[in-house]
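Q: May I have one protein plus its fold?
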Amino acid sequence: MGFISIMNKTLFLCLFFSVISCQKQEEKLAQKTSGAINTIAVIIDDQLWNGEMGDSIRNKFASPVLGLPQEEPLFSINQYPVKLFEGFSTDSRNIIIVKKGGKSNFEIKENEYATPQNAIHISGKSTTEIIDILEKNKITIINKMRTTEIIENQRINKDSLLNPKKIKDKFNITIDVPSKYNFVMRRKNFIWIKKEITSGNTSILIYQLPLSAIPKYNEVNSIIKKRDSIGKLYIHGTETHSNMITEAAYSPYFSMTNLEGKRAYETKGTWEMNNDFMSGPFINYAIIDKKNNRILVLEGFCYAPSKGKRDLMFELESIIKSIKFL
């Protein structure tokens, strides 16, 4: 009888602690991350942060964003000593936790303290070892964090979206554009959508070209030539004979990427109005859509002379990357 009683108590305790464990896990997942877009909480002791290791972290994650007219960091970094970490920075979306001592380790834990979240754990016996781990894995870390930030930006935008019918009917796609944007111009193969902001605006262009419009081995020049011709047709300044052109003083950044399973050319650079003083950054995606025998172009650009451009351009990139082909 005593044996059965002990077994029952043991079973009860196992079930009890199992329930408590599940509740804690649910509470952790129920806690939502917070904070500004493109921000990293770096958990590292002050002595390391103020030395070579801190320099390495700043050089990798606060390096200038490509394609902006002024230098702005890829991520804004907030540093906290390890002893202040518990319960203070656990709701950050992106965390890098660096500890010196013990075995060499690199690990990315998703939703460890809240959701959505990337917790990057890095440790090593020496400063050199930790810096080597950072160097080896920086692209993985950056891509992981940027993907999370884009998804979060898209989630925020979905609260109130522009009616998709006009875009859907013209281009046979959907794209999640916030309702704060308005249609400025619609032509046969062209749409311009704009949002007014304090002292400026952000814009999205959608247009299509024949597949032959961007021949291989001459992609960058062809893309620039086409966007300049679109600017001449539709994007005009306040001065006479003023239209948008690609700024010739700076070579655009060009790469291949993938959107919705389709190959795409990504071009980042700066635009200006000829015969005018307006200028700003742009990001252009020329998507190879062989099924529909076209190149579909989505471009975001902004004019905000008195503001930082990084987060404005990131919002435009997030909107463009919400594209779905029907």
User: Anything to note?
Assistant: The chain has a mean pLDDT of 89. The two ends are 68 Å apart (CA to CA).
